[in-house]
């Protein structure tokens, strides 16, 4: 079983703050982390390797500092790590990003052999688009299963996998032939602690570099210029002002005040006359 | 990037999402919004879908102003499956060349839209909360939150068509404006051997199927509720107000509420008229999912809780004491006692 996990290095969203003076995000001092959903994809791939044998490759597109994310992925049990990094990728939207990752993956397949399972988190916590995974799967022309919450069965002999995915009305159990592409939810698994041998291997194994000179990537499909979507403007939403703390002699008095305050809204909704 | 001849594309298309014979409400919301955009573009609003039996939805889509309803019917499309849906929809779009394609940002819509846009080699803007037409260029301006709602970005797609967007449920109102529409049936030859994925079982969570976006009033319980049993206080208040109940991620992780009721970055985004946060401290991930609510009422015993920073009205107190009293009082005042 060979898994290839697509990961992204993102700023820790919980620590990003807004500078309301300038209307920008304050990113200084905010640690870069592996996109939390992607970590669950790495975990799932490593568990399947541990049960059925094989290996786990991981790839990240980004600036040189994204190497840290790949090192961490190896500490979680990935065997090979590839950094896809080139100036030509700068400003890529999801269509261009899925192209670059797909083209980079072709090179990884040449080096590491055919892949049975492709993985990614359901979305990245910075862009929140959930579009890159489906885009890559489409380019490979393989079955896509999004929002995976459970792996029920892996059958390496018949080359099938059975998973549970979330849908609007509940869940569905789905079987797909391998190779296929899975995007995963956090509920899929609990992350394990990196055992010492993984940590040692991560420290010793170099991250391999992929760019436009050692892959077949077509520069005319990458970067800002070749992305169909462009950003017209970015702005911070207006800050919500701290409202009114309701105080009174008794809880009854406070709740009475609250009721009076929200009566106009309740009227608008037709809940009171 | 291949630039398309954009002059060949016309009209706004709205995807009619359906499951178990029912149309998703977001499709009606988008049809309503599309009517507004169509005025600026001087074009028509059309609906489209694929499925096993979908002609039955025609009255509903015409009720919301779609002048044409493009459909492909085939038993292979009985249950939603990415690949046959993608291929048949791509066929419709390539044949009729709509200028704009709008899809609901549901689990189904987000699964589908990315694959369609990739095949069509066009731009797709995810999860938008505002759509406008640029008065000068007539391009669609698509505004969406990123960084968990901390930053908004307005995106456009100048050289490729269709301009595609998934839009969040609950952002636009669904308003009827019936027209006499026309159904246009198309045939698509599926290469059945190509679709190798199978649905083995569907687990419908009856009673727990909840799209929080439908509700004007949401009462939400957090870790401060203390136990699963105490969540009933949240539910009781929601019932009295004619709203629904929800939970924070911490409450869901503690097993006090199903994931389908989670509000926040990894749950659902809501913007009701009234959001009552009970025992919720206001972690940034939660706030990202509810801060656009019109009126936010926060009840928390910690006066320093970050939720008070954005609450319209704050009550410092023990939720277990406040909620039952509030339910009783509101019940009387609303004449439900």
Automatic annotation (TrEMBL), chain A:
GO terms, molecular function: electron transfer activity
Any Pfam family from its record, for instance, is ETF
The Electron transfer flavoprotein alpha/beta-subunit N-terminal domain covers 22-219
Q: Which UniProt keywords apply?
A: Electron transport, Transport
Recorded hits in SMART domains, A to Z, give: ETF
This protein's name: Electron transfer flavoprotein alpha/beta-subunit
- Gene3D superfamilies named in the record: HUPs
Q: Does the keyword Plastid apply?
A: no
Entry-linked InterPro entries: ETF_a/b_N (IPR014730), ETF_b (IPR012255), ETF_beta_N (IPR033948), Rossmann-like_a/b/a_fold (IPR014729)
UniProtKB/TrEMBL annotation, chain B:
InterPro entries cross-referenced by the UniProt entry = DHS-like_NAD/FAD-binding_dom, ETF_a/b_N, ETF_a/FixB, ETF_alpha_N, ETF_asu_C, ETF_asu_C_CS, Rossmann-like_a/b/a_fold
Protein residues bound to FAD: 248-249, 262-266, 279-286, 300
A biological-process GO annotation: fatty acid beta-oxidation using acyl-CoA dehydrogenase
Task: State the taxonomy lineage.
Answer: Bacteria, Pseudomonadati, Campylobacterota, Desulfurellia, Desulfurellales
Signal peptide start-end? none
Family annotation (SMART domains)? ETF (SM00893)
Cofactor(s) recorded for this entry are: FAD
Record keyword Electron transport present:
yes
Q: Which GO terms describe its molecular function?
A: electron transfer activity; flavin adenine dinucleotide binding
Q: Which family does it belong to?
A: Belongs to the ETF alpha-subunit/FixB family.
Q: Write the record's keywords in alphabetical order, separated by commas.
A: Electron transport, FAD, Flavoprotein, Transport
Q: In what residue span(s) does the Electron transfer flavoprotein alpha/beta-subunit N-terminal domain sit?
A: 12-207
The free-text cofactor remark is: Binds 1 FAD per dimer.
Q: Which PANTHER family match?
A: ELECTRON TRANSFER FLAVOPROTEIN ALPHA, ELECTRON TRANSFER FLAVOPROTEIN SUBUNIT ALPHA, MITOCHONDRIAL
**Record's SUPFAM superfamilies?**
Adenine nucleotide alpha hydrolases-like, DHS-like NAD/FAD-binding domain
Annotated protein name in UniProt:
Electron transfer flavoprotein alpha subunit
The scientific name of the source species is Hippea maritima (strain ATCC 700847 / DSM 10411 / MH2)
Query: Pfam families attached here?
Result: ETF, ETF_alpha
Quote the Gene3D superfamilies the UniProt record gives. Answer: HUPs, TPP-binding domain
